[in-house]
């Protein structure tokens, strides 16, 4: 762990080192200093510091090289840049290497103290929050409702305290068992539609579970690490994946739906048993106990499109009822639940039902039936069909809003194509808004593009692709900082986890690509003065 009060100052000017000691020591910090960058790297490797204050221009090794070498061993150590030669290019390079703030010399005591406090405060808050929420076991997260709401196969359930318990209903038809589950770490931010967790199945099958909401992970279910099969065996109970404190709940909740099922079964005891099993799979169940109650149940649940009918209890009247429902509601998916002795299988199949199941509650078949009935549709592909050969690689997308303010997305070379993949999805979504959008081709030096954008735009977004040790398509948003010297707005860095294979670093499945584009567009179009969400 980092020492919470020890700072390291690396600056070739002894007066700066002494000044930092004089200013920060009375504030409760222990300050170590060095005028030699090489010695500073050695100290950083041996010791645990709360943060490093680093000069950009030093003899023998400048601050950028220092950062590059530091990041090989200390990925998360906060670094504050201090320099007498402010430039947007150097600031951009430093931010790409994980610098968290930028202070120009000569600085006031207030400025340097504020920079240090700003860097360390989020970590203090995070530690307090983790302490309050530990241990992240199931009993710590008491559901506030019995309802589960779904974004595709992923669900959330509110728990007491304002967080959301999150899990997933995964199909079992592929065979094998869950070998391992990859879960997010406490403190990570996750985004609706982007990867939250992963499951490895025998035979090298791999599921990626999207997050149903955007927010901060406040607990991760370590029971899954000990017993991965809980993800299948008890998906809405002990097999939950994480607890998340949402940041955009009101906006995103409308994208999540109940899995409504009307269960038509005249056998009341059996209906209650089947209803309980469906509810354990995250379904919201309405029981219709006789022929006359099916119609009212459908009227009371107009957004329900799954009907499960117990064939034996309705006898010869069942197929006729299914035919009437099909005529009135063509989109209704009818699942017939029958015993092995049922006489009306051929009659039901003539009505083009969705599925005919024999004793599906006796084994795990009902899990796959529910999965098939609610399987999500893939997102639409962008409408832009004007293809160029080859596609144009974009280095910049400029959005001019109706009030005249400009936001620029600057991307590393090769990340965005005008007519393909993520780039096309972003352009398509911006076009839906009716705002003015301009694009510019790639540049070899991203720093120059950032410098130009920062001088004229309200908001600059930097899009990078890196290996973050997360699932492909995951997104990390760094805290917005004021544009460096000469800039008028803010600079925010968005880092996407690279694809796991060689080639296009942002080549994901259609759903992940569409969701990533949605979050990038959200950043481009929201008020830059407001926090995320």
Description:
The chain has 533 residues and is α/β, with parallel strands linked by helices. The chain folds into four domains: 6-133, 3-Layer(aba) Sandwich (Rossmann fold); 141-254, OB fold (Dihydrolipoamide Acetyltransferase, E2P); 256-373, Response regulator (Rossmann fold, 3-Layer(aba) Sandwich), CATH 3.40.50; 393-525, Rossmann fold. It has 17 helices and 27 strands. Strands 6, 7, 8, 10, 13, 14, 15, 16, 17, 18 and 19 form an eleven-stranded mixed beta sheet that branches. Helix 2 (37-46) packs parallel to helix 3 (63-70), helix 4 crosses helix 16 (446-456) and helix 15 crosses helix 17 (510-525).
Question: What's the layout of helices and strands?
Answer:
Layout: E1 6-10, H1 14-24, E2 30-34, H2 37-46, E3 51-55, H3 63-70, E4 79-83, H4 88-96, E5 99-104, H5 109-133, E6 149-151, E7 154-158, E8 164-168, E9 178-182, E10 189-190, E11 195-201, E12 205-210, E13 215-220, H6 223-226, H7 230-233, E14 242-246, H8 249-252, E15 257-264, H9 268-280, E16 283-288, H10 291-300, E17 306-310, H11 311-314, H12 317-328, E18 333-338, H13 345-350, E19 355-358, H14 365-373, E20 393-400, E21 406-411, E22 416-417, H15 421-433, E23 436-441, H16 446-456, E24 459-466, E25 475-477, E26 481-482, E27 490-497, H17 510-525
Parallel strand pairs: 1-2, 1-3, 3-4, 4-5, 15-16, 15-17, 17-18, 18-19, 21-24, 24-27
Antiparallel strand pairs: 6-7, 6-15, 7-8, 8-14, 9-11, 10-13, 11-12, 13-14, 20-21, 20-22, 20-23, 25-27, 26-27
Helix pairs in contact: 2-3, 4-16, 15-17
């Amino acid at each position: 762990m980092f020492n919470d009060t020890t700072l390291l100052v690396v600056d070739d000017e002894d007066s700066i080192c002494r000044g930092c000691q004089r200013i920060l020591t009375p504030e409760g910090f222990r300050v170590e200093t060095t005028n030699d960058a090489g010695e500073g790297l050695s100290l950083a490797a041996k010791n645990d510091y709360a943060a490093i204050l680093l000069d950009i221009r030093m003899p023998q090794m400048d601050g950028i090289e220092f950062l590059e070498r530091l990041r090989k061993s200390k990925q998360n150590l906060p670094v504050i840049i201090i320099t007498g030669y402010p430039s947007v290019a150097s600031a951009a390079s430093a931010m790409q290497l994980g610098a968290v703030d930028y202070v120009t010399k000569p600085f006031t005591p207030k400025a340097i103290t504020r920079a240090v406090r700003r860097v360390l405060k989020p970590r203090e808050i995070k530690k307090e929050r983790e302490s309050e929420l530990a241990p992240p076991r199931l009993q710590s997260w008491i559901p506030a409702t019995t309802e589960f709401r779904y974004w595709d196969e992923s669900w959330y359930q509110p728990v007491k305290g304002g967080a959301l318990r999150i899990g997933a209903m995964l199909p079992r038809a592929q065979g094998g068992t869950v070998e391992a589950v990859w879960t997010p770490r406490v403190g990570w931010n996750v985004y609706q539609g982007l990867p939250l967790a992963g499951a490895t199945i025998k035979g090298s099958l791999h599921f990626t579970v999207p997050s149903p909401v955007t927010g901060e992970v406040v607990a991760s279910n370590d029971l899954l690490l000990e017993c991965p099969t809980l993800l299948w065996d008890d998906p809405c109970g002990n097999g939950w994946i994480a607890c998340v404190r949402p940041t955009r709940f009101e906006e995103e909740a409308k994208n999540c739906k109940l899995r409504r099922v009307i269960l038509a079964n005249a056998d009341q005891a059996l209906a209650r048993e089947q209803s309980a099993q469906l509810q354990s799979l995250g379904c919201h169940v309405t029981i219709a106990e006789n022929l006359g109650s099916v119609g009212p149940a459908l009227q009371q649940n107009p957004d329900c499109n799954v009907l499960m009918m117990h064939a034996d209890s309705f006898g010869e009247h069942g197929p006729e009822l299914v035919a009437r429902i099909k005529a009135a509601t063509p989109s209704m998916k009818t699942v017939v639940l029958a015993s092995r002795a049922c006489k009306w299988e051929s009659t039901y199949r003539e009505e083009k039902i969705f599925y005919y199941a024999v004793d599906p509650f006796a084994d795990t078949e009902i899990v796959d039936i529910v999965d098939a009935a609610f399987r999500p549709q893939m997102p639409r592909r962008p409408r832009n069909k004007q293809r160029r050969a080859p596609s144009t690689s974009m280095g910049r997308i400029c959005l001019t809003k109706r009030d005249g303010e400009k936001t620029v997305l600057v991307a590393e070379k090769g990340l965005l194509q005008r007519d393909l993949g993520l780039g096309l999805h972003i352009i398509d979504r911006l076009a839906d808004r009716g705002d003015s959008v301009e694009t510019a081709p790639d540049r070899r030096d991203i720093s120059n593009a950032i410098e130009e954008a920062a001088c004229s735009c309200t908001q600059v977004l930097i899009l990078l692709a890196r290996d973050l040790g997360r699932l492909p398509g995951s997104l990390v948003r760094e805290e917005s900082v004021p544009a460096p010297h000469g800039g008028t707005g803010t600079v925010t860095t968005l880092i996407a986890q690279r694809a796991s294979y060689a080639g296009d670093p942002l080549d994901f499945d259609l759903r992940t690509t569409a969701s990533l584009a949605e979050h990038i567009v959200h950043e481009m179009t929201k008020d830059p003065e407001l926090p995320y969400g």
